[in-house]
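name: query_chain
kind: protein
chains: 1
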Amino acid sequence: MLTKLKKKVQELLTTEAKIAHKLGFTPNSISVLGFILAFASAVSYVLTSPAQPWLLILAVVFLLASGFCDTLDGIVARTFGQTTVFGGFFDSVLDRYADAAVYAAIIIAGLCNQIWGLAALAGSILVSYTRARAEAVGIKMESVGFAERAERMLILAAVSIIAFWWLPALGYGIILLAVISNLTVIQRALYVYKTLKKKAAE
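structure:
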């Protein structure tokens, strides 16, 4: 859904990519930094309580910084010819661990219903898995579905900020994420089915 906007943002971050490269950052090291920031976000969520709602803001800062790194690593790789098959694989694996850490932290902290939290976690992982499986058989999946990782991160950040004033907002946000992420999985499954069926008929 945000694929076109993401491409424009990537164009705007060329300067930041050059700075990161001059400082000696490689795409893989930026991916690792993004994972560390996501883990810091998870820790902030775990420690959040009605007595310490300010930790939600800290969690959002770390979450968005992690998302920034997730965008920057690809720009550095493409700009300086450092794109590798392993780099893409490594980045994807770290992203899955990052997502799992954040959702698990929210569940552990009791900031959402456990069932809905698990549904959101499963949906998040499966959105990425369906893309990987589809692209493995030659079906391009970018922009297919309305809850890709960028959308999910922005929704989680938004409801976390609202939860600073009204804590239950995060629980409702997780329900929303569970629904739209799993609907995205269904969207992608149907898209793959129709595409394969079309290819078979040709």
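note: Helices lie at 3-12, 14-22, 27-47, 54-79, 85-108, 114-136, 149-165, 168-201.
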